[in-house]
Amino acid sequence: MDPNKESVDKILGDFEKHIQTYQYGQSPIELYEPISYIMNLGGKRIRPLLTLLAYSLYRDDYEKILTPAAAVEVFHNFTLMHDDIMDNAPLRRGKATVHEKWNPNIAILSGDVMLVKAYDMLLEVEKEKLPSVMRLFNKTAAEVCEGQQHDMNFESRDSVSEEAYIDMIRLKTAVLLGFALQYGAILAGAPDADAGRLYEFGVNIGIGFQLKDDLLDVYADQAKFGKQVGGDIISNKKTFLLIKAKELATGEKQEDLKRWIDAKEFDKEKKVAAVTKIYDALGIRELTEAKMHQYFEKGFGQFSSLQVPNPKMKALLLQLTQDLANREK
Amino acid sequence: MDPNKESVDKILGDFEKHIQTYQYGQSPIELYEPISYIMNLGGKRIRPLLTLLAYSLYRDDYEKILTPAAAVEVFHNFTLMHDDIMDNAPLRRGKATVHEKWNPNIAILSGDVMLVKAYDMLLEVEKEKLPSVMRLFNKTAAEVCEGQQHDMNFESRDSVSEEAYIDMIRLKTAVLLGFALQYGAILAGAPDADAGRLYEFGVNIGIGFQLKDDLLDVYADQAKFGKQVGGDIISNKKTFLLIKAKELATGEKQEDLKRWIDAKEFDKEKKVAAVTKIYDALGIRELTEAKMHQYFEKGFGQFSSLQVPNPKMKALLLQLTQDLANREK
Fold first, then answer.
1. For chain A, what are the domain ranges?
2. Where are the membrane-spanning stretches (chains A, B) (predicted)?
């Protein structure tokens, strides 16, 4: 067995055990049951893992920060609970969303209390670190909300620029990865410059991960991919690919693309095939991959320049993030 | 002019000026405009005023805690924004609610960011006080959510006990008044025993205020009352009055009450008159007043036993809370 893999699994196992025993609250049950429900839908626990690994670059007692690390996961799941209401999503990780299983009011209120519980977990950091940690957390939390609002605004907009799109995904998803890493470094007492660089690393690979998501939705191998390939095409989701295609298409391709986007009724498979063909003709895949690699290179470059006390842990964190960058599903 | 009145007005004026200049955020405007909108709908600013007055029992530099005091008002307005979605309320203080003026998604997300901004304001307390203040704030915030969930649960329940109702209003509205007072005392460095007593004072008068609300909704003088007298009767709202009436009514009165509650179509004025008549016959007004006075007496008793450095400010705080206890609208 890969000894590196073993260490990440150990940390993940300890984290999982820890959050299973955490008490969010008891009564009324309608408020607290949805919290356990969404927290137990699984997921890869990337964010708290980033916090625990960043901490472990500098110290070997990550058990001490399991609750503070959980704050990032609880916050992330709070945003999922509320985003699912806004997006009217019936499913999350293959299971009914909270507003579907209970109702939207419960999903609003249970989400609100989750955000409060994330702050409760944050309170478990060392006293003298609380103000700076909370300031960064608040900034990040507001940015995640801003990103979600930009994303909703894009839905009703006719065109979105590449720049506006990158800024939206930076806010909506990437800054939380940056925070997770910086937070772990701060909790470990790492130098400010290191913590800042880890933040930048997280933001850059976070943008890369989202571009990867956009790519996989069109170009994944259906046999390996967890969901329907082409889902974004079917729903006209303004991904990096569609934004670039709209920008670059002219003549017949432009008209074709517009017709498929405007079509109220269509054969899903035909639409996916036709739009993918337009993407291929315009070289959208290559353009998106180039943009993605640009962010990965920047991020991994920032990471590799770090000098840390525990190089073994650095290799583990690199492996984990590279696996995510190279994933096929 | 009453010099006491002048001082409260001065504090209130300073607070109002302060929150007018506070910057919540800029972009996207859909996220931040609703915050300014709801914060500018007015209201009496009772909660931050309680914080500022409690602080002023011990110190004479309340200007230093205007931002921390605003945290309570921002939190309160966040709960209003989300409660209005859940209650499907079209109006708040005579103006369109946020979910009506914009849409429910904006009201969810703008509310979320408001809660984060309340924590930002909390961050302005002295560093060494932050952990204890935040712990109390989190506890209170979770309780307010619990109270709202209990209230929603009551809507679909056939019967609610007096005890469950009092506990619901304690959580939903009273604990935040208790927190506001305790918070001001803590920020002023008051003895723990004083801060604890101010909390109890706030919770007890808070329960009294809600019972007063329930009473006014039926027994206010329509000429003085801001809204339609009898609104709670029309909507079958499970107030203390209705809960007691259901508990005590027998025979014909019980049947009458049930018929009015179950009626799908009815003349509003007739329903209000008929249910009020049942309340009168059962002595509900007196019962509710007695319960209310019980909480006021307990609260004001706790308050009067306090020994504080600034007795003039104590008189002001007493006057303010007694005015609220005696209000007719």
1. 3-326
2. none
